[in-house]
Design goal:
Blueprint (H helix, E strand, L loop, with lengths): L6 E3 L2 E3 L3 E4 L3 H12 L6 E4 L31 H6 L2 E4 L4 E7 L2 E6 L4 E4 L1 E4 L3 E3 L12 E3 L3 H13 L2 E5 L3 H12 L3 E5 L12 H13 L3 E3 L4 E7 L1 E7 L4 E3 L2 E4 L3 E3 L2 H5 L4 E2 L2 E4 L10 E3 L4 E5 L2 E3 L4 H16 L10 E6 L2 E7 L6 E7 L4 E8 L2 E8 L2 H12 L6 H5 L12
Helix pairs in contact: 1-7
This protein binds flavin-adenine dinucleotide (FAD).
Amino acid sequence: MVQWSYQRIGDVVFSDGVLIVGASQAGAQLATSLRDLGALCPITLVGAEPHLPYQRPPLSKAFLSGKVSADEVLLRSASYYTERDIDVVTGQWIESIEVIGSGGTATSARGRTFAFDQLALTVGGTPRRLHVPGADLGNVFYLRDLPDAIALRDSISAADRVLIVGGGFIGLEAAAVANAMGKQVVVVEALDRLMARAMAPVVSDFYLDAHRRRGVCVMLGTDVVGMSGNGTVSSVELSDGSSLPTDLVLVGVGLAAHTELAEQLGIEVSGGGIVVDEQGRTSRTAVVSAGDCTTLRAAGGLRRIESVANAIAQARAAAATLAGVPGPPLAVPWFWSDQGDLKLQTAGLSAGFDDVVLRGNPESERFAALYYRHGELIAIDAINAPRDYMAVRKILESRGSVPREAAADSTLALKSFIRA
Ligand SMILES: Cc1cc2nc3c(=O)[nH]c(=O)nc-3n(C[C@H](O)[C@H](O)[C@H](O)COP(=O)(O)OP(=O)(O)OC[C@H]3O[C@@H](n4cnc5c(N)ncnc54)[C@H](O)[C@@H]3O)c2cc1C
């Protein structure tokens, strides 16, 4: 049974339990994990958005294409939180936090104060803005939350031409949706390949060809230098001197983590996020953090991962830290991206690989890339190949590997390499 410590500092007895700032994937998981660990203290999950915590992945996929509704993207129903005695407070942007000992108070922009014994920051991030002339015109969209997705969805329906700035996951997922709706879609990417931050060149090249085959125009090595229009955007100027007419622009150029509260508390921020260790501890004792707002300090250095799986794993670890119990075993990172009918699933981290083995034929649009470092399997990117993905994820979790030759032989089932 978890022993919850309540603090007396001077005349103040903190009996306010855990305050989790940021009510989304990581925050909701942290609250749930605390209860699963047996915590009996009050748990308050406070978030700026007006909704209960919801899933963001559908916003660039099934929600954008109109296949699921806002209610269907909720992570949990209201009754789920009530039954677990988790107080979810929506619509409150926390703008200042004062820590006294290990407890303290947080105050929202609307003047509400929340006292706490222990604090978790699960504040995620906000889309990076494009700073070019005309970027503030109407019909220039970013995609992070439900209102963004609703506005973008309505605008795409009414548009003929859609221009997407950024060939990362969100941009390409939205491009696939708009393309399937019969729109003329252009993706403008500054780097020389797609999804360059997370994917190896072989996968980037495959996606470039696949999107082009489906009719999406992809321009690599090209910057957007300006936008023009009368109230709303009607054309985009590019670094090669050309300009493209468009009815709307979606900018997907990355995320800026919310680090303001951590900075206010003197907590270390580096690599664009709140620095945490594998237990979710920040540089300030008793303040934990999890999810997209963090930078993980691990054996290999600083690492930022923005994914659902990472938010869940870090939140579980942070909950264990608050509860004073050992954390769950380290999870193998995994991720997915649905770009139309192309289902990408990744496990492990391919950064630093020195060899890649293809399994299956990219032309069939069903294959996997297995990454090796010093002869050891470190990651997989599987495209429409869920069995290989699942087998490799389990192999990595069991700290196993697959000999190179076996990896290349698609008649051999990879699951035989999962260690008992
Ligand atoms: C369109 C889209 C598609 C995606 N697709 C995938 C996918 O296919 N696969 C995948 O693995 N991941 C995907 N992701 C990423 C995934 O959704 C994130 O990794 C995940 O949401 C991170 O959760 P989080 O709780 O850390 O942060 P967030 O979801 O950003 O939540 C942070 C919350 O904190 C709130 N907040 C911030 N500051 C304050 C404050 N001061 N006071 C109160 N509240 C505050 C914010 O309003 C927000 O609700 C996608 C993301 C987007 C936007």
